[in-house]
Amino acid sequence: MVPRRIFSGLTRSTFDEANPAPYAEGAKRGVDEAVVRHISEEKREPKWMLEHRLASLLSFQSMPLPAWGPDLSHLDLENIIYYASPGIAETEDWGEVPEEVRRVYDRLGIPEAERKVLAGVGAQYESDVIYHKLKSQWKEQGVIFLDMDNALQEHPDLVREYFMKCVPSTDHKFAALHGAVWSGGTFLYVPAGVKIAEPLQAYFRMNAKNMGQFEHTLIVVEEGAEVHYIEGCSAPKYGSQALHAGCVEVFVKPGAKCRYSSVENWSRDTFNLNTKRAIVQKDAVMEWIGGTMGSGLTMLYPSSLLVGEGAQCDHLSIAFANEGQWQDTGGKVKHLASHTGSNIVSKSVSVRGGMTVFRGAISIAPDLQDCTAHMACDSLLLDALSRTETIPHLTIASNDVTVAHEATVGRLNTEDIFYLTSRGLSEEEAKAMIVSGFLEPIIRLLPLEYAVEMNRLIELEMEGSVG
Questions:
Q1: Are strands 120-125 and 128-134 parallel, antiparallel or unpaired?
Q2: Rounded to an integer, what distance in angstroms lies between the CA atom of residue 386 and that of residue 325?
Q3: Which residues make Cβ contacts (< 8 Å) with residue 161, sequence separation at least 6?
Q4: Which H or E run includes 441?
Q5: Which residue in 362, 371, 363, 312 sits closest to 339, CA to CA?
Q6: What percent of the chain has pLDDT over 90?
Q7: Conformational region of residue 454, where left means phi above 0, alpha means psi within -120 to 50, and beta covers everything else
Q8: For residues 101 and 19, is the Cβ–Cβ distance under 8 A?
Q9: Which residues pair with 204 in a beta bridge?
């Protein structure tokens, strides 16, 4: 039996402690052509990738900041370090990772989870992947699980076929920035018919002050294949800005199934401006399961394009906003074929003046038949200072469809708190238990060990919530 408490020792200091970062001292801040060329040259990339980076940079420089949603005008893009290599060679032997870096991941439970429940693991530190390993049984079946830099060297044609074809650099300003300065990330290719029984995970850690991380995740699930991929991330707290603008692209071929789970716990210093999108073909299934906990400001809306008949998607998410946090999250689905179905469910919690916003968008193209879409947002406010908003957007251009939207906002029930405190719990423990129960329908969809991690993160956010 797998131990249930891999992540039980997590404390706030687990995430907030930083290692020395001499590699970042004197690092260039801001982004320009010289930075982009330096990244490409250091990684020995093919000419087409450098050209892609430079074109993306021009798009970034010409695009305005998003004019909707939370205010990004105080994000100082000129003070971010866009590339810093810690100088650690990638390895498949955990013992070869430098001890001070290894301790970070040991505290987070990554190696133990790999040994007990995972088919493979990648670990990124700053701009570089430092550890990557896949179990031999999946290698033998043709599964490719590499960091993106190595994938570009070893499988250039395969990477070029899919890279930023789902999320083009012209999509928005931070997609363009990502296209210019991306580094590291995951390339996962699952051959037709292969069903990976255990999840694969990548964990991304920012360490240096004012760091930016721009990992690229590219997943291709061929016909009839199945995979569950998990991403986690964290960063220490410095009191000055950091930036995360990663990109996730998923291609789910006919009859395939992909579940993408993420537990995002960036520090309050971090602007989390991530882009995630999947193209879902005939009779395929895409599942997004996510928890957004830590960053000071998040804009994250995983998207699914249902391009084949019978395609299905589920978007299930949790957002937790504490003091000084704005969690702007949701999901987007485009129905582009008949007989498709989508389900977007969001649960959010706001405490101590935190702000949660749900933005959901469903569109159904003209002349489609038998499409079903459902969108629901449930919000829980823990005090009078906190705020929440629900912003649904429905664009329906066909008649033979069933579309539903619902939203609820509630506060903690004093009778429930009284009942629990009368049974010996403190008021703080009672509140934490009610919040855990509210979020449980989504948390339980994570593998057991990661559900434990999510619950522990919620406990940390709830500490001191009384008074």
A1: antiparallel
A2: 10
A3: none
A4: helix 427-443
A5: 371
A6: 78
A7: alpha
A8: yes
A9: 124, 233
